Amino acid sequence: MKNIISGIAIFLICACVLGRSASAQSVSTAADAAGNPWWQNAVFYEIYPRSFADSNNDGVGDLKGITSKLDYLKELGVDAIWISPCFPSPQVDFGYDVSDYENIDPMYGTMADFDVLASEAKKRGIHIILDFVVNHSSDQHSWFLDSKSSRTSAHRDWYIWRDGKGPGVPPNNWISTFGGSAWTLDPTTNQYYYHNFYAAQPDLNWRNPAVKDAMFDVTRWWYKRGVSGFRLDAVDTLFEDPDLKDNPIKTGQNAFGDPIEEDKYNTKLPEVHDVLRGLRKVADEHNAVLIGETWTADVAELNRYYGEGNNELQLPMDFLFTKVDKLSPAEFRKQIAAVDGASGWPTFVISNHDIVRSYDRYGDGQHNDQIAKLIAALYLTLRGTPIMYYGEEIGMKTTPPTRPEDVKDPIGRTGWPKEKGRDGERTPMQWDSSENAGFTKGMPWLPVPDTYKTHNVADELKDPDSVLVFYKNVLKLRHTNAALLDGSYAAINENDANVLSYVRLYKDHGVVVALNMSGSPQKVNLELKGKGFAGVKALLVTGKSSAKGSEVSLEPFGVFIGELRK
Ligand code: NOJ
User: Most CB atoms within 10 A, among 42, 250, 344, 476?
Assistant: First the structure.
């Protein structure tokens, strides 16, 4: 028995050293051949479960649907899926209002379905990351139902209750992110409770050790069930100033007609980091990863989320990257350089269920597919962990509702027409050109955009020039090229206003990436001799982009990825 075990261990070590594809057959928990933790070289993919694949044709996606698409994800080159909340929930904020942290909402299936998903994912070497809504629960959670029942209930102090300043006047001026006061008066006990988001999402009181223990135990519960980590929702807002000081008010109004506040006393309080250190300790016991929804103003703030000696979040998301809203080499260069100099491993996000899709952010209306490939070549070849969003790989487009009566996202209903909500980036995944894009045979919960006729998985797989095939190729390169996995990043030709170029160097091996962000052909001189290289060989290009000697020629919005030759 002992021999068999050590034989298996030797096989696994060899498989790891000899080739990454061999280790991909099982969920790797150990560091890779270069000594990096598993999450560092993994490609993450966010699934919005309502919209991914509907197995029972009720119009809403589900866990069995996700399981049925694991082969697709594996072939695409995905190593970890982050599933947006699939726990029991009244769905006021489509799952970001959790009423039971240790179960699956019947609309998505059962715990047995989850176990099947976990084991099927494991067989394919895909890790599962769940979305942990740490800041607040649903107002239908048994903790809150008890909390609101009386001023002396066992869970009273699990949430934040205060007297108003006077009749009809909330405890302070804090504004909810989703509109209106952040305080709601509950008539049962005649006190206000605090909610950074909707009134149906009361904030948990993280100053109460019982809350901390219960929430830490939730993570242990899921780790035992085979989960490899969590995306932590809204970590910025875990704590509030205990004295509830009023926030300073800026000028102007937001889309909901509320005054704009500087959220000084209810965002990014230092106590957040104690919690993150604690969650990280538990995660480390399970070789798990913590990804943070971290809306940081600059890299100094991002660094705080990595923690001292990297003892907090391994992957705080760099949203500054998504703030670059035009194809500007100078802007991207600046953001990449900033995060490349951060104190932890960079995490690149391109889009998600709250953000307009990259296809629309950067598309010019004429070369959108070309630009989608350019964006893929960018965020998938940088030094850092990429987090994809479902549908980006086929060029899905944000399709917001055109009539207020069609809006599903409540912030779209309260904020219409200035704020149309987030339905547009949550539309059903486009699998094929059949009715409803093959997402469901029922009535989809959100309409399927017309673009499914031209942009869908089945058709794009057959087209060597499609966005999807380009994604597959770039992901394959990323998984097999040491310079792309572990190499350093250095910008080159930094004064070029049209082309973003950089090299990734690993030992004596290098890759150059040149991305033409303009609508006209461009040439770039890589000046290879000065860098100790004799030439460059194309690895992956779009269109007729090519290299001759040290010179790279790029088509409008063209991509050139090449291997540097000594
Ligand atoms: C961030 C999530 O991404 C968003 O969808 C949600 O509405 C808020 N947090 C509240 O949980």
Answer: 42
User: Which atom of ligand 1 is least distant from the CA of 84?
Assistant: 3
Q: Is the dihedral of CA 47, 277, 208, 175 positive or negative?
A: negative
Substitution candidate for ligand 1 out of 50, 233, 319 with most atoms within 8 A of CB: 233
- Is the Cβ atom of 359 under 6 angstroms away from ligand 1? no
Q: How confident is the model at residue 31, as a pLDDT?
A: 66
pLDDT digits (tens, 9 = 90+) for 65-113: 999 999 999 999 999 999 999 999 999 999 999 999 999 999 999 999 9
Residue 52 CA to residue 13 CA, distance in Å, equals 36
Pocket test for ligand 1, best of 354, 387, 413, 423 (most atoms within 8 A of CB): 354
Catalytic residue among 75, 217, 284, 285: 285
3-state secondary structure 81-138: EEECCCCCCCCCCCCCCCCCCCCCCCCCCCHHHHHHHHHHHHHCCCEEEEEEECCECC
Q: Is 317 in the pocket of ligand 1 (CB under 6 A)?
A: no
Q: Is position 285 annotated as part of the catalytic site?
A: yes
Pick among 2.60.40.1180, 3.10.580.10, 3.40.50.300, 3.40.50.970: CATH of 488-565? 2.60.40.1180
Q: Is 514 in the pocket of ligand 1 (CB under 6 A)?
A: no
Helix (H) or strand (E) run with residue 290 in it: strand 289-292
Of ligand 1's listed atoms, the one at least distance from the Cα of 96 is 11
Q: Please give the average pLDDT of every successive group of 10 residues along the chain, which has 566 residues.
A: 35 33 42 85 98 98 98 98 98 98 98 98 98 98 98 98 97 97 98 98 98 98 98 98 97 94 97 98 98 97 97 97 95 97 96 96 97 98 98 97 96 93 98 98 98 98 98 97 96 97 94 98 90 91 94 97 94
Query: How far from chain centre, in Å, is Cα 345?
Result: 15
**How many CB atoms are closer than 10 A to CB 549?**
12
Domain positions in the chain: 42-138+209-240+273-476, 142-194, 488-565
| φ, ψ at 479 (rounded to 5°) | -75, -20
Q: 348 in helix, strand or coil?
A: strand
The atom of ligand 1 lying closest to the CA of 133 is 11
**Sequence-ordered strand ranges (E) for 416-550:** 488-492, 499-506, 509-516, 522-525, 535-541, 546-548
pLDDT of residue 22: 31
Instruction: Evaluate: CB of 133 within 6 angstroms of ligand 1.
Output: yes
Active site residue 233: yes
Report whether CATH 3.20.20.80 matches the domain 42-138+209-240+273-476: yes
CA of 200 to the centre of ligand 1 (A): 13
Does the Cβ of 197 fall within 6 Å of ligand 1?
yes
Q: Can you give the pTM of this predicted structure?
A: 0.94
Q: Which fold has domain 142-194?
A: Oligo-1,6-glucosidase; domain 2 (3.90.400)
Please identify, by atom number, the ligand 1 atom nearest to the C-alpha of residue 93: 7
Catalytic residue among 113, 233, 261, 459: 233
Tokens describing residue 382? 């940088």
